[in-house]
Write a structure and sequence with these properties.
The complex is a heterodimer of chains A (238) and B (292). Chain A is built from ten helices and ten strands. Chain A is an alpha/beta fold and 238 residues long. Chain A has a domain at 2-87 and 159-236: 3-Layer(aba) Sandwich (Rossmann fold). Chain B is globular and about 60 Å long. Helix content of chain B is 73%, strand content 3%. Chain B has 292 residues and is mainly α. In chain B, helix 1 (3-34) packs across helix 9 (218-233), helix 2 packs antiparallel against helix 3 and helix 5 (140-162) crosses helix 6 (164-174). Classes of the chains: A alpha/beta (238), B mainly alpha (292). At the A-B interface, helix 2 and helix 3 of A face helix 6 and helix 7 of B.
């Protein structure tokens, strides 16, 4: 599980996170919603170590990981599928997926055999990726790239997964597909922190949700509680 | 004009051009992972060549000396990364430019103090007797340059495409942050790229020295042309450097033959200026080269 305690982080002199705290329990899907610029993506980046937090703690399965390199945190079991998908464009779909499992595969040869079961699972989840396995991932459509970004994060068999704005820039029908996938992963018991601009859809799939405002958590509760909260309703679910 | 002389000039020019291409390829390796290059790369070529010469003088046979020299080049590459590049990159500064030049100057004076200022012959068991091919005389020694250049570039490309570590190298080149999120250490990958770049520089020194001799000043002659090749081809052009390197070598050789040896440097400088004016991304390049 993941615990974030009083996290501060920012870019240069401007502090974006001013004491964010949240928790994601084992097997839970937790949504993080809020307006643009509230600090949702910065929270994700500070948890995964891409951005070094200036203060506060991040506990992954009880172990403090704040201040470690992002690559260390990833190898400890946190998979962060970043905003904008960030697939490795020149590399093939399959190479992208194999790199998702980088930490536990042999580094020279025989790595594909070690990841075959996970590859099969991702291909079963996203058959279209299998059709395009040899294609350079930069040539995929936005929806396919999002599936690849999710698949790549799953390849790590993460303890906790962070998924940042998976619906960004996608056609409505693809967004529905993305949420169907998230629901299925939830049934399989994934531990997930989800940042999403479509707050309504995020609350439908989440067990618990946090609303961020100006760098800290303003409201938290179950989806039902948030839907009954007048202020949240007006600002984010209207 | 005797066409066989032109052919002769073209062939030895092209082979020399492969050495420029190899050094330029070393620039590409570090540029890919860290958008930085070692401006003291010529000194790496030179110091590694001197070190290999010392190994030979200690009685090591050629085939034992080569791996020793390459390993030394890799270590020098790591020294440059650790002392000159990493700190600057961590501060998001362009200080690596100056630091790598300073390290080059340091290597230059170290070489002068250890090995002296004179150019020295570099013994090799590879025969310098000419072989007659298509009306042109080529020596085995010259051919060994081509074999060495293509062998190491082929091996490194194979490494990048066929091994997971190589794919991780490509991932860091494509998106450093995203690669970190996969558990790939960008710092170590940059170190690897500098070690490979140093290995490539050492091989360039070992290949070219039997033809040109070894001396502290060999660095500046090689580096300017290698840099021209890298910029004209593009810092992300892959094997584009081979074509441009060979073309430049041929032009240079013909210029010094027809116009006099004082014009030897003219083609590389002309090409460099033309490329920067007309196509700053390089003939085969994709990304815009940052103005530094």
């Amino acid at each position: 599980m993941l615990i974030v305690d009083d996290l501060h982080a920012g870019y240069g002199a401007s502090e974006v996170l001013v004491g964010t705290s949240l928790a994601v329990k084992q097997g839970a899907v937790v949504a993080l919603i809020g307006a643009n610029g509230a600090g949702k993506t910065t929270t994700m980046r500070a948890i995964s170590g891409v951005l070094r937090p200036s203060h506060g703690r991040v506990l992954l399965d009880g172990k403090e990981v704040q201040g470690l390199d992002a690559s260390r945190i990833a190898r400890l079991g946190l998979a962060h599928s970043p905003e904008g998908r960030k697939v490795f464009g020149p590399l093939s779909v399959e190479d992208n997926l194999l790199l998702g499992a980088y930490g536990r595969l042999p580094k020279f040869l025989g790595f594909k055999a070690g990841a075959q079961a996970d590859l099969d699972r991702v291909y079963e989840l996203f058959p279209r990726l299998k059709d395009r396995a040899r294609q350079a991932s930069g040539t995929l459509s936005g929806g396919e790239q999002q599936m690849l970004a999710i698949g790549r994060a799953l390849m790590a068999r993460p303890k906790v997964m962070l998924l940042d704005e998976p619906s960004m820039g996608l056609a409505p029908v693809i967004v529905q597909e993305v949420f169907r996938t998230i629901r299925r992963l939830k049934e399989e018991g994934i531990t997930l922190l989800l940042v999403e601009q479509f707050a309504k859809s995020a609350l439908e799939v989440a067990d618990h949700a946090y609303v961020m405002e100006r760098g800290r958590i303003a409201v938290e509760g179950t989806p039902d509680e948030l839907r009954r909260n007048e202020r949240v309703l007006a600002a984010y679910l209207g | 004009m005797n066409p066989s002389i032109i052919g002769q000039m073209a062939v030895s020019g092209a082979l020399m051009g492969l050495v420029y291409a190899l050094i330029a390829y070393g620039f590409q390796l570090t540029y890919a992972t860290s958008k930085s290059i070692n401006f003291g790369q010529g000194e790496l070529v030179m110091v590694s060549a001197f070190f290999s010469l010392t190994l030979t003088n200690l009685g090591l046979p050629y085939w034992a000396m080569v791996p020793g020299g390459l390993l030394f080049g890799a270590l020098l590459g790591l020294v440059v990364e650790r002392t000159g590049v990493r700190l600057a990159l961590e501060q998001k500064s362009e200080g690596w430019i100056l630091l790598s030049i300073i390290l080059g100057l340091f290597f230059f004076s170290a070489a002068e103090n250890i090995w002296g200022r004179d150019d020295r012959p570099f013994p090799t068991p590879i025969s310098a007797d000419p072989i007659h091919v298509f009306g042109v005389d080529v020596t085995r020694l010259e051919l060994s340059v081509a074999v060495g250049v293509f062998a190491i570039m082929g091996l490194i490309e194979l490494f990048k495409r066929r091994t997971l570590l190589g794919k991780a190298f490509e991932a860091v080149s494509a998106d450093r942050d995203a690669a970190e999120l996969m558990g790939i250490s960008a710092t170590r990958t940059v170190m690897l790229s500098y070690a490979l770049s140093g290995t490539v520089a050492a091989l360039a020194g070992i290949l070219v020295s039997p033809i040109t001799t070894v001396g502290p000043t060999m660095a500046s002659a090689l580096i300017l042309k290698a840099f021209s090749v890298a910029v004209v081809a593009g810092l992300d052009s892959g094997f584009g450097v081979v074509l441009i390197g060979m073309a430049l070598g041929v032009l240079e050789s013909l210029a010094s033959f027809y116009l006099g040896s004082g014009w030897r440097e003219a083609p590389s400088l002309t090409l460099l200026i033309l490329a920067l004016a007309v196509r700053p991304t390089g003939v085969f390049g994709k990304a815009v080269i940052r103005k530094v």
